[in-house]
Amino acid sequence: MNSHKKRERERERASERASETTPRQHMPITASEGSAGFAAAKPDLDDLIKRRFFYRQAFEIYGGVGGFYTYGPPGAAVKQNLLALWRKHFVIEENLMEVDDTNIMPHDVLLTSGHVERFNDFIVKDSSDGNKFYRADKLLEEVMDARMAEKGLSSEKLVEYEKVKAQADAYSKEQISAVFKQYGIKAPETGADLTEPEEFNLMFATPIGPTGMVQGYLRPETAQGIFLNFKFCLEQNAGVVPFGIAQVGKAFRNEIAPRSGLIRQREFTQAEIEFFVHPEKKAHPKFGDISGLELLLFASDQQLAAQPATRMTLGAAVAAGTVANETLAFFIGRTYLFLVRAGCRPENIRFRQHLPDEMAHYACDCWDAEIEMSLGWVECVGIADRSAFDLTVHSQATGTSLTAQQTLDTPIKIERFCLTKKSLAAIGKHFKKDAKLVTASLSEMSADALKALKATAEAKGVCSLEVEGQSFEISNELLQVESITETQHVEVFTPNVIEPSFGIDRILTAIYEHTFSLRADDSAASEKPADGGDKKKKADKKEGDKVKAGVLALPAEIAPYKCVVLPLDQRVVAQYGNLLAMARAGLAENGLQYKVDESGASIGRRYARADELGIPYAITIDFDSLDGGSLVGTATLRERDSTQQVRLPLADIPAIIAKLSSSHQLTWEDVLASYSTGGTSSSSAGVAAAGDKLDYLRKHAVAATLNDAVNALAETQPEDPIAWLSAHLASMKSQ
Amino acid sequence: MNSHKKRERERERASERASETTPRQHMPITASEGSAGFAAAKPDLDDLIKRRFFYRQAFEIYGGVGGFYTYGPPGAAVKQNLLALWRKHFVIEENLMEVDDTNIMPHDVLLTSGHVERFNDFIVKDSSDGNKFYRADKLLEEVMDARMAEKGLSSEKLVEYEKVKAQADAYSKEQISAVFKQYGIKAPETGADLTEPEEFNLMFATPIGPTGMVQGYLRPETAQGIFLNFKFCLEQNAGVVPFGIAQVGKAFRNEIAPRSGLIRQREFTQAEIEFFVHPEKKAHPKFGDISGLELLLFASDQQLAAQPATRMTLGAAVAAGTVANETLAFFIGRTYLFLVRAGCRPENIRFRQHLPDEMAHYACDCWDAEIEMSLGWVECVGIADRSAFDLTVHSQATGTSLTAQQTLDTPIKIERFCLTKKSLAAIGKHFKKDAKLVTASLSEMSADALKALKATAEAKGVCSLEVEGQSFEISNELLQVESITETQHVEVFTPNVIEPSFGIDRILTAIYEHTFSLRADDSAASEKPADGGDKKKKADKKEGDKVKAGVLALPAEIAPYKCVVLPLDQRVVAQYGNLLAMARAGLAENGLQYKVDESGASIGRRYARADELGIPYAITIDFDSLDGGSLVGTATLRERDSTQQVRLPLADIPAIIAKLSSSHQLTWEDVLASYSTGGTSSSSAGVAAAGDKLDYLRKHAVAATLNDAVNALAETQPEDPIAWLSAHLASMKSQ
């Protein structure tokens, strides 16, 4: 378990950004108690996930292909809702721009980004059968595991094998080849020799156009589509930096060995932000909003010193220099808030800083949001200060200026050392047809080079200039230099970029693991509605025996369906048509996803089915709804996590669920308080009384009368409004 | 123009469903007046689209690649909002399931669907230069166009060329090769011979896994991912048919000659529904909701008789048999309502029925929603009854049962003709080791075949049975047959499917063309705020001269930003920070996308900029908002299409915009009525009075007092509530 998790964790980093080419050596990851708890619940969760079709292997009726998954109805809805929440939390609340670029990208773009040359894993093949292949680092790890398990191993050897294993994904091609020879590693299935390690590019290649005139690839990340459009987005932002661009979409990696469900797929969903800032202005105006957040931070020096992660506020972390700057810390804080809002458990989230040799050479600082789940701590979000790297390389490759400008508060003076205009003109005249070549070369020369040239000319009376293989002699008289002071009012700079990059499918995995539980002794299945009785006593035994009562306590905002509508008994189906139609219309009008369960199962069993889908609210239409005197037109509303119920007018329910399922302040406790008199547990009497009150007010059209009165009041604006209202109401004919 | 459009239209159908293999011969499409109007406005619209970065060619800084587009911030937001509206209109309101399948699909799936073998265009190459290639049908059309333009052409020849051109995309490989030879068509650039036409498959191929062990393709349509998961979705629906599954996502076609902007891209977005029904039960329970809709229908017999399309209700169309069934008609109606809700002009939408030889052989009926735009009538949605074709072929290819069951109201009796059990046993015994082979073959035999076999046996005393190349002699004594009557309680059937398939990018093109206009004499740019004065008179002349005042009257539901926040004058920036922060928080809380325009441009110019982005509402924070006595804390709200303004408390605005931008009933007229006294045009006095009234009520906490009183009222439930309230208020201490 331990070593399995460790390898998993190490692997997490191998296919990160292609351009991270510095060797990586990872700290061993220790499985925690939390991880073991999630692992124990995993078989039941996996059963639920597949049985209710949250997701399953893609193309299953064709036998499936590794690394591809299909999200079924509840899973696709949760993913949609998670992305909507992400857009609300980041794009809207941080007022970012969003672009929607293509999945297929041409060779040149990905050559610049480094993916064509460096987005590789090493592969070795069985020399007796080329169809048997292995990812070199994974095979090496397995061989080392096997050797460490051998009996009578010296502690020296144990350390050696452990070290090789830890390095496996950091070796260069030559190194890994040497290691394979040193340990005499053979093809595991046949015992034949292995071929030399070859680089295997992880991008899916596909030619564009009928003659494959342009080599295309499926994008390995969504970030490049942002950099390509930086210039056009900056224009839309009226040239003002800072600003951020987001992109959400599919990314593709042709993994040699896909595994771990949604964690390492060949096709997955990313949500990335590139937040562009001035290189020297990385403070963030809203830093104060998150500076008090205390998070579990695992700084690189703690990792190197084998110390545990510690809780620390982001304010303190920036002050201490642990986190490089405010903007980076701001997005760490916002990421944490997002993950918790989406349903991840706060205590299972930590932020791990990349080690110095783990970061790309150009990166200033990088933190991963790691979420503890059954596999151990899994990187789910990377938040990096990537400096000006991406814009710089694309600018160089295309000759397009990818800079921003800002007016300087105080203009600055710059000293420049150059040839005098007169001297340039004279040199031009002197060299005739070569004039352009010589003067261009002199103009581009650095101050130091020019000074050196002038020094030579002064010493020898002449100097020689090499341009494109030709040599030109310039006399000291011709070479007249000067220092010029220029005043600069505008600063041109290549923005730095802070990049929060979200692995949506990994976060979904964490959400399912963190919200899943089994109800104690199958309580939901034996639950009864608040009143109206459970007339469906025949026990659905077969289903009840086979299925454990799993619950997904998904936050209402991301739950696949916001409610389920349940007729209490099939026998009333004919009568309840109108009420159902009313509920459907109300739910659709409020944009709420919902389900209707008209099966013959007991009400408790149907609650349990809804719990499995993470449905937060259940509306039960019972006999009283149809024929219960003052209760006609009411229904019971049940909340998933507390299993509390309350009776209220069916017409009120859709708007209430809409509020409960959004960021609106209304809480379930408010609903209980409004509609029941008896505190948290709703008694029949209390419920009846609440329905009764509403009936009374409705019957007498109290609201309409009061609205008219208040309008008249506002028109008149008397000194004492309440006295005035009292008199006004007295003068009205009571209805 | 005319012939260009005609070719465009004909081309629309060429790359439809791969399995539509019957030859197609298309009716000529006549450009209408509407189309010419859109074409005239197109250059201004295109300028706006690119300048404000709704979309532009992808990878532009790398020179671009044909057929790929990037949606910039406003365009990506409009697309997101359109998809959200689609989900609300179909997935939620029709209670469909949604799946999220992969973009990469394996060979076997697309072999079954017909795409591997038949999703082709013909390509011809210049024999002197293999890099010069042409789509055969397009080249043929161009050659015919050129010949028709020759002088002195006989009318006979003209008809011949016209006919060849009209057939161009319907020829088989042999036919088109013969036609090229007949007319001696050469490579247009070099005059060299052309190669024989080759089939070019339009799918993007990409190998999966390191040895390309599985041939993969990018999906050419989203529909296949639905059929693959029919079985698992049916399980989630408790086995009940009818039900529908939707999928939204990218689709990919490696077009030889991409063109017409978003209309024919290599990567595009589809939204498809497969609605599964019993083959003989295609009525729809909600048909009554749309049966009264009168639409422009262009039935196939009208097209063949060269008659115009006619207006007809869907109820009448189904009654007359023009539309094949209620479910098909229901989705035609819902599609129409969606397109109008999204911003398409009703008068520019028609539904064209496929001609009998244009439909796939298995399809019962098929209608395209065609939208009139600058190119002519463009197919944007296809709505087809595809019978049981897709489920049948996938079931056959995989050996997976893709059927549904339903309990029969009245069990039916079925006569079966078969061998007696005794006879089967005896035959088994007789043939020993071949027993299984022989009895299996006899059991699977049809009644007719078995009857024929028995007849032979009776006539000759013996009959012979061929199984897998072996011959078995069976005596008449052994072959004992009987008729059995079986009672069937459950019917097993392969559902038929009604498929509405939406081309999202085409619909977006239509929406932009239909909502775009130029303001008469640049009125927005000279607009002033309701009061507070326009202190920014310096005329931004440069911008004003270059840019015409375009407006996108996008429905608020799909507008990229729901409002723009404008400080009236940059000089107040320091003071208005708090108000802006309040507006931002309120807008974000309501999940509203918004922009802030703090540029120094005049207020009119900034309104004009917002109009270009289709922003429906502008909030102007002016001097009175900050320092206007009773107006402090208010702002003006301007509506884009009417350019009317009203002043109201800033705190109220976000919730109002949220309602105006959703399917909530609140209208702009309601807002005007609530907050201004002077009818539609808001006078300063009226605005002040409205703010004043609210101030008065707030100051005296009238709402809180009344809430308490109403709660007490509901508790007491007196006979005369108004009299009681009057007394109760009188007894309260006035505040």
From TrEMBL, chains A, B:
Gene Ontology cellular component terms for the protein in this record: mitochondrion
PROSITE patterns in the record: AA_TRNA_LIGASE_II
Ranges for region Disordered: 1-33
GO biological process entries: mitochondrial glycyl-tRNA aminoacylation
Cellular compartment(s): Cytoplasm
UniProt key word ATP-binding: yes
Secretion signal span: none
Oxidoreductase found in the keyword field: no
Principal subcellular localisation of the protein: cytoplasm
Sequence ranges of Basic and acidic residues compositional bias: 9-19
E.C. code: 6.1.1.14
Pfam families: Dpy-30, HGTP_anticodon, tRNA-synt_2b
Molecular-function GO terms, alphabetical: ATP binding; glycine-tRNA ligase activity
Keywords: Aminoacyl-tRNA synthetase, ATP-binding, Cytoplasm, Ligase, Nucleotide-binding, Protein biosynthesis
Aminoacyl-transfer RNA synthetases class-II family profile domain residues: 44-529
Subunit composition and interactions: Homodimer.
NCBIfam families per the UniProt record, alphabetical: glyS_dimeric (TIGR00389), PRK04173.1 (NF003211)
Family assignment from sequence similarity: Belongs to the class-II aminoacyl-tRNA synthetase family.
Name the record gives this protein: glycine--tRNA ligase
